[in-house]
Amino acid sequence: MGFGFKILHVRLQYHGRSQIAEGSDRRPLFAAKDSIKAIKMAESKPAMRKPDFTKVNQLRPGTSGHTLTVKVVSSKTVLQKGRAAGSQVRQMRLAECLVGDETGMIVFTARNEQVDLMKPDATVILRNAKIDMFKGSMRLAVDKWGRIEVTDPADFTVKEDNNLSLIEYELVTVVEE
Predict the structure, then answer these.
(1) What span is annotated as the signal peptide, if there is one (predicted)?
(2) Which of 15, 74, 114, 138 is a Cys-bridge partner for 110, taking CB atoms 3.0 to 4.6 Å apart?
(3) Are 34 and 21 in contact (CB under 8 A)?
């Protein structure tokens, strides 16, 4: 159990008078307000934690926040179209990639810039990945809050006989008694 200190207020001397930082708009007190704000922000910022890596066979429908290291088995572009957005042309690309690790495989939906990273035989780290349901099967995706990083080649072989995207799920209502 540790102890810490919390700043309640800062008292400064200005022209021989004592003033509380929150109550004045004089120049030296602005610096004190800014430093108090910085200290409070530093106190409230959560500490970074190490990622907890998930294996493919641990993925379940409706879950999110997964960090995985996977190999890209195959990549197939399913949609590629350009659209005019003002003076620039934005292109929408969508690819279905089969990714996996030593425990199984799953279909990963890559969007736009992600398509370029998902080359066959590449090893990638998927951060903050989520499971989307598409026609009753699981798909892995990384949205704007996640990240894809190409990393050094992994030393595992993909278990190709356990494809989680081939399992069909049905949403049922459970009545509690």
Answers:
(1) none
(2) 114
(3) no
Beta strand pairing call for 123-134 and 147-151: antiparallel
Contacts of 129 (CB under 8 A, 6+ apart): 64, 65, 66, 67, 68, 140, 141, 142, 146
pTM: 0.66
Domain ranges of the chain: 11-44, 56-166
pLDDT tens for each residue of the chain, 177 residues long:
444 444 344 444 444 554 444 444 444 544 555 666 666 666 666 677 777 888 989 888 889 899 999 999 998 888 877 765 555 666 788 889 999 999 999 999 998 888 888 889 899 999 999 999 988 889 999 988 889 989 888 888 888 898 988 888 888 888 887
How far apart, in Å, are the Cα atoms of 137 and each of 48, 77, 132, 147, 169? Answer: 33, 19, 8, 23, 6
Taking the CA atoms of 86, 87, 88 and 94 in sequence, report the sign of the dihedral they define. Answer: positive
